[in-house]
Specification:
By secondary structure, this protein is an alpha/beta fold. It has three domains: 12-143, no CATH class; 147-213 and 376-451 and 508-601, von Willebrand factor, type A domain (Rossmann fold), CATH 3.40.50; 218-286 and 304-371, no CATH class. It is 30% helix and 14% strand. It has twelve helices and 13 strands. The protein has helices at 2-7, 12-60, 65-78, 117-124, 171-191, 273-280, 344-348, 390-401, 411-422, 510-530, 548-560, 586-598, and strands at residues 88-93, 103-112, 134-143, 147-155, 200-207, 247-251, 254-258, 382-386, 438-446, 535-541, 563-568, 574-576, 578-581. A six-stranded mixed sheet has the order 8-5-4-9-10-13, with helices on both faces. Strands 1-2-3 form a three-stranded antiparallel sheet, with helices on one face. Strand 4 (147-155), helix 5 (171-191) and strand 5 (200-207) form a beta-alpha-beta unit. The relative contact order is 0.14.
Amino acid sequence: MLLKFLRDERGNYAMLTAIAMVPIMGCLAVAIDYTEASRQRQATLNALDAAGIATAVEISKGASDAEAEQFAHDFFLANLGPVKPENTELDVDLPDMSTGGGTLVLTADLKFKPYFYPAFQALRKVSGSGETDMAFSARSEIQLKNTIEVALVLDNSGSMDYKGSGSGKKRIDLLKEAAKELVSTLSKQAGSMKQINAPVQFGVVPFAASVNVGAKYKNASWMDTEGRSSSHHENFDWSDMSSGNKRVEKESGVWKKKGNGWPVTERDKPVSRFSVFDATMYHSWAGCVEIRPGKYGLSDAVPTTSNPDTLFVPMFAPDETDETWYSRPANNNWWKDYDYSKDIDDQARMKKYFDPTKARLDPRTLGPGRGPNLSCTTKPITPLTDVATKDGLTTIEKAIDEMEAGGATNVPDGLAWGWRVVSGPEPFKARPESERGNDKVVIVLTDGANTYYRPDSITAQEYSGSYYRYGGNDLANNESIYSSFGYARNKDGKSRIFEDTSVNKYDFSNDNYSKAMNDKMAEVCRNAKTDGNVIIMAVALDLDERDKTDKAQIDGLRDCVSTSRFRTDGNGNAAKLFWNATGANLSEKFKEIADELSNLRIVS
């Protein structure tokens, strides 16, 4: 009997089930709680990542630290889904945008309160602290690879028509190919960024002896339309129109048309370079401007009518003497003035321009870069354009394709306008300087030294004087041909090309002009990097360090540029953003520039 009882197993299942119930229910409780914990954890991670991306966009739009942090918290809480906000805690570590490429770090802590695990503990009568909450942390990092605005400052001087070394193509054509490839590369990268407006913008600044801002801006608020700038009339003398019924008088600092000899619609209107262009009938302003006087010449100072020297003055090359000197003609004789003699005072007289019967209609005086538009040979600036769009990319590529080689080389003027293109205020508007997460970049390429020429050092006008190939005469003592600095010596004996330079101001030679322009190039580079926080990159094309003149330009460009944020040189220092290129490897150098710019690009 006893042995039979011991062998009977019919009640063991229920007993074993009862014994096993606690661990079974415990495992079920843990499984349910684990599933819910995983769900809430994933929801927290999703909210964290979404808040990171959204906050990065807000920062790129210029949100302050306080605004960005509040936005991150609000966005995170709004996207928690099944998670109770009171069970989470968010910490926001904002990036240091002073150097660009910062990192936004968001950290979230979640306390999960289990549904069944506490009951399981009570069922097992587990002793301890009674703490049943589960906790975990999550971290999200968003790398800010800034939006960028790039001005391509490209040499269009006459030497760019030469063939590039190691290549069968002209330098200007090699430049077009390399520049378009650079823009295309950055355009493709920008096209994938949908959450930021205009992430990559390019502008084009062709330069030679001067820079063309565009004739369409003739009446812009930043142009000196009334002749108020101190440099506006430096080559003009209105004294021969001070009497009669068609006279000019100065009134409240502005020269105005007076007398009934003027059409009724013109009386009391200002006389300026624009009105002289209009008077000549056969010439119109091509769009080039002079360098502003004094400290404003190589700065991005905002043009205002309250400070006339900040306004931009249209280039107007005075008609020079009809006289020849040993059969050498003047460099720019484009209006008949036989009733005048030959000195600088006669050159400055204005009455002749208002007598259309004196117009010299030789077609060789009317073409681009001639007559009153002497030294204005480049195509107009193309302002910043969003290359992430098809139309924007086409606009920039077209501007590059239309470039033509001709004229002297004025790198400081090109750099100054490159800076103004990416600068926030007028003339060409860009993102505000205060906008965080945005880089402003100027890339300059040149194939030669800075040049300004004496009249006798270049070929003169072939249509008046048999010895034009031997250089022009300088009977007016201008000491140079006319260009964006004006004459090297104006009628008051002053010279803007020598302003704020360390060179001998009485040495009117081509070499000394180059030295003065080198000083000005260094000045605009310092100003742009310090005052404008602009990143400057430079490419020297086919310049030979063994040549004294070329080496001076190479050294100047190397000193001008910024340093890389991402690369080092062989000595462990930040690499200079300077490339010494030949015609054969220009394309490769531009690919290196594309890599550098890619590291400055927007949120990743």
